[in-house]
Amino acid sequence: MMLRRTVWLWALLACAWCQAAVAAEARYEIGWPDLPQHKTWVVDLHMHTVFSDGLVWPTVRVVEAWRTGLHAIAISDHIEYQPHKEDVPTKHNRPYEIAQGAARDRGLLLVRAAEITRDTPPGHFNAVFLDDIQPLDTPGFVDSLAEAKKQNAFVFWNHQGWKGEEKGRWMDVHTEIFDKKLFQGMEVCNGNTYFPTAHQWCLEKNLTMMGTSDIHDTETRLKNTAADHRTVTLVFIKEPTAQGLKEALLAGRTLVWFKEQVIGKPEWLEAMFAAGVRVLPPNSRGKAHIFVPIENALPCDLVLKQAGNIGPAEITLPAKATTLVRINVQDPNNPQELKYTVTNWLVAPGKGLGVTLNVAGK
Amino acid sequence: MMLRRTVWLWALLACAWCQAAVAAEARYEIGWPDLPQHKTWVVDLHMHTVFSDGLVWPTVRVVEAWRTGLHAIAISDHIEYQPHKEDVPTKHNRPYEIAQGAARDRGLLLVRAAEITRDTPPGHFNAVFLDDIQPLDTPGFVDSLAEAKKQNAFVFWNHQGWKGEEKGRWMDVHTEIFDKKLFQGMEVCNGNTYFPTAHQWCLEKNLTMMGTSDIHDTETRLKNTAADHRTVTLVFIKEPTAQGLKEALLAGRTLVWFKEQVIGKPEWLEAMFAAGVRVLPPNSRGKAHIFVPIENALPCDLVLKQAGNIGPAEITLPAKATTLVRINVQDPNNPQELKYTVTNWLVAPGKGLGVTLNVAGK
Amino acid sequence: MMLRRTVWLWALLACAWCQAAVAAEARYEIGWPDLPQHKTWVVDLHMHTVFSDGLVWPTVRVVEAWRTGLHAIAISDHIEYQPHKEDVPTKHNRPYEIAQGAARDRGLLLVRAAEITRDTPPGHFNAVFLDDIQPLDTPGFVDSLAEAKKQNAFVFWNHQGWKGEEKGRWMDVHTEIFDKKLFQGMEVCNGNTYFPTAHQWCLEKNLTMMGTSDIHDTETRLKNTAADHRTVTLVFIKEPTAQGLKEALLAGRTLVWFKEQVIGKPEWLEAMFAAGVRVLPPNSRGKAHIFVPIENALPCDLVLKQAGNIGPAEITLPAKATTLVRINVQDPNNPQELKYTVTNWLVAPGKGLGVTLNVAGK
Amino acid sequence: MMLRRTVWLWALLACAWCQAAVAAEARYEIGWPDLPQHKTWVVDLHMHTVFSDGLVWPTVRVVEAWRTGLHAIAISDHIEYQPHKEDVPTKHNRPYEIAQGAARDRGLLLVRAAEITRDTPPGHFNAVFLDDIQPLDTPGFVDSLAEAKKQNAFVFWNHQGWKGEEKGRWMDVHTEIFDKKLFQGMEVCNGNTYFPTAHQWCLEKNLTMMGTSDIHDTETRLKNTAADHRTVTLVFIKEPTAQGLKEALLAGRTLVWFKEQVIGKPEWLEAMFAAGVRVLPPNSRGKAHIFVPIENALPCDLVLKQAGNIGPAEITLPAKATTLVRINVQDPNNPQELKYTVTNWLVAPGKGLGVTLNVAGK
């Protein structure tokens, strides 16, 4: 039986006709494992509603996120850009207020946020963990960021290199706000786009790497899977609270999950690889070969390229599967150390993660 | 290559960041065939937006409908019930006005409509093909319907037997509005619910049978298929215009496509069966059996039960496939006439459509 | 990226052209959890190859089973019925011998077996854990079973009530072999068919309940999922060996997974439900309702019907998902005890499993 | 309702237990359209069974091909290589003989064939449309090809550049057999591999381009779709017979469908594009843009890159969908001629097909 998973907004059950239906709502976990010292949260801090240029009611963002396995989101409607305002008058704090009941019912963390949307340069910035959005509606750009800082927000620079901003051009205003510590992160990936310059700058300037959906439209996915998922940030938290999330973001404990790639600092990529990939003992040993099952528990295919001199030239480990690998060896009873590069996990633009697969001896 | 079909609202490309993306939008036809004298349109005349208790911007309804193969829709926000009005002030005609550009760009027919939502009884009614919704916002229920009639609307009674209305209870007020010809159709199916009483009354009182989604939430389907589709009305039109659609509805030329069922008047079920099912000549003839391919070009599985004395007790013809059927016969070279009941096509509550499958002789 | 999971037979890499391709083979675990005292194995002990009336080479059965998450299988070609013998001469032990290398390479348990296929009545019987099939090729039916017993086989009666056997008719010969302890189990489900009489007899006579595929054709499934899976037996073992499997079968520690149903003795159904279903603390408490997430970690949808007086009339818990359930209660801060029947888990023909869902208080 | 499409071999219904089930078998057409002067057949002339190194009974190849929408196949077991011969003694003509009843019952064309499998060089060759395979079992390689010619076979060179054969090396023996007209085609694609050298040689020497599965294992696909399909040859025939197929192959009227690509001579690519792609009249015209729906009826995504100066830089037209394209133009009322390259349709290695999309004026 293939169930059609109905999505339902309990918060809106004022519609009495709807109440008649037996309605429930189901959540599908994605399966990114926790690390030994941290919980892994799937987080999206950039999205829009009808209160700016998005196309859905604020509660929809909560329901979409919950059912597809996210742990925390921020609705970040534009402060300055509201094409629907003739019909939906400007009220910066309303999206958060409207959505928070739906979030509480589901145990999803919703944080108050806004997108500061000035002409570019300097570009757009998301301010997250705000107390009140209204004071950010200032004439001056730097003033708006300063207000965000005053509220102890976490701020990141969105989709660098777009429109008026030149790609890869760091301007004086960016130096100014960086020196004033007015932002702490950058989007390395936004929706369907990857920004290699942002990736590079995050490494050089120790900025937190962010991945976001920037979703305006409806989410048609019922699940996030290796084959098709939303661009998000994996955040390694110590405590499952808003404060815990902010601490992790400020500390830069993130990875970006973008299409078939994972992008981040080597230490977090390594930790995630260790948490999710396991080389099992060989099933059988021939005269000059062994059959080794390799388990990939992650929701991400791993494309490995030989970086040493033992093992197949390429190994693809599909997500959430155990792959049987035949390895030609000189002495099948010896332990083997296989050197590979995970080509779709990036430690820097164009550079894959190096890993070692240790196969047990007899 | 499995493409993720991005849905995009051109009408909202004011968001300059969005424009940067190469965006396109794709439509998947469903595949209900035209009849010899009529075109077949897939139509949904009951849905909601943020302007009443729905959860999306009006243009979303157009994009959802177009990409999933519909030909015409009506946004029918409640006149009397607007739980978002604190944020989205009441303007009855705005959903239509906002969505019509998106509809024109796609060649989808959008008709102006509203749901008259008084206490039940008498229940809710959809008025479609209106010129102006405002005048229907009257104190009296019958007055509102009278105004709809004045505007030459097509009116149907929604989800009979819900809440205050008893199931299967036709009240004096219904006799009054029926006698005054203030409504012409009934929902036989609404979303996930089938109303056998409405089905029966449509047959007895010659009302047009309607199927609608009554969608409030977002549409997560990328296509409408036999396995998973929106509840809709198939309308057999002479001309692909608003006028042509209204004429067909008034004339009762409809079928209701609901889950795995099709419901309607026998003549239209028969016409659709004839248009979509074809018994091909036998591929081979054994001593006492023949192998006959039966093509079902329809987007609907057909579950047939033997009603005569030749052929398998049951035959399932999957949608858009050709099924190989082995038939035991006395003389394999003779033509064969197979009597079956299509158990999932209803000519009346609980009663399947009788069909004959003619197999050619040698 | 949607990978096409290539299935590959390493054992046949003699074909040098094939070797050129980078080939690997992936296994998808199904996700039936272990019980506190037992490991859960997914087992299929009835299938065929070209050596009787099946359509594949013996190694294929191993590869199909491994990639779809099974733990142990038996190839059980018919001893008496071999329609291909003109081209594939009779050799009863060859299927096992040919397939065992492929099984060893994958760490899948393959046990030697055969189907004793005499005229019915008395019907067909599978003998599993044999040392040598040849001696079972005897003229007399009871002699063949006796030889199986001599080899310490586990024997089960297949698809009761088929052809010459009347449904539900237990004959003298069955009493004879039952009294002689020549068989210990019965197929409650075989492929697409459920046998209520066999179900009933297993309960009355303490026979082990078996579910098998009886696959003759190729397996087109890439995974076994709630929506589409092979009919199998879940066996609760103490040790992951052939001996451990046999011990569990003789002790009757099984469940049958058949389409959307699970069938078995109440104690094992209860244990599996406890292992896979978890009521989480309420996310929020309203004045007269609470929102409770219920996690179903099992690869099986659960269809619950209210058997008490609190909670929705029906709750469907989709497989591997957490469902949000709104429960109307008098005092939202009190703990709640919800009584339900799992309608698709059968403790007897037509009788669902009773369960209690305990919701925590504040 | 999602039906599990059961595959069933009527030819093997000797298994009386199986007969009890209501079994049927369904075919899914792929949807490559006919050309104005020719029917389009989907053809696979390279595959194996247990009679050489394949893993299935011959009838399985017929059932797999029929259900997935093919029109003609050849089983081409190796003459010289039979790793199962201890259990399945060598009989070159048996696969064809065993499978032909199943083919006749389904109306699928099965032609007698064999793979001449000598050491490489010179490589492997498929001989198709044979009367008797036995006489090809000769000591000399050229003799075997000569026998195939005597029987009026169509012969093609398989997977060039494999093992002993160097990639891209045309040897004396190839000149000899080419000059003697002992082969007429080459595999441009075999299974998951594309051979650019073979592609180039087909263009230079006017050899027929072939795509084949070379399937040894079971086919797990239930349908052939744009997202996942078998490598095959599209053949443009005048008559739907074995003779008609041979005539078309000898005349070189083929395209190769390989993963997301189509490969062939420009005239056939152009004809197929014309048969399947249709630019519809603009839905709406703005001040400086038009919205044009483009229908792609083909079972293949089309990836277009701008080769002129009007239209988006890239357009992807998903298979069997209509894509809405916004085109910025100077005068929206003028007709427009859009120049594009179909990057995934190859007229030569690395070279896409040039096409023109004509948009109607007002």
Folded structure, characterized:
With 362 residues, chain A is α+β, with helices and mostly antiparallel strands. The first copy, chain A, contains eight helices and 20 strands. Chain A has a 15-stranded mixed sheet that branches. The first copy, chain A, is elongated, with a radius of gyration of 23 Å. Chain A starts with 15 loop residues before the first helix and ends with a strand. Chains in contact: A-B, A-C, B-D, C-D. At the A-B interface, α1 and α2 of A face α1 and α2 of B. β18 of chain A pairs antiparallel with β1 of chain C, so a sheet runs across the interface.
TL;DR?
With 362 residues, chain A is α+β, with helices and mostly antiparallel strands.
Distance between the termini of chain A: 45 Å
Number of domains of chain A: 2
Please trace the helix and strand order of chain A, writing H or E for each element: HEEHEHEEHEHEEHEEHEEHEEEEEEEE
Question: What is the typical, i.e. mean, pLDDT of chain A?
Answer: 92
Structural category of chain A = alpha+beta
Strand percentage of chain A:
25-35%
Percent in helix of chain A? 10-25%
What's the assembly state of these chains? homotetramer
Largest interface: A-B, 50 and 50 residues
Ranges of chain A with pLDDT <50 over ≥5 residues? 1-22
CATH fold description of the largest domain in chain A: TIM Barrel
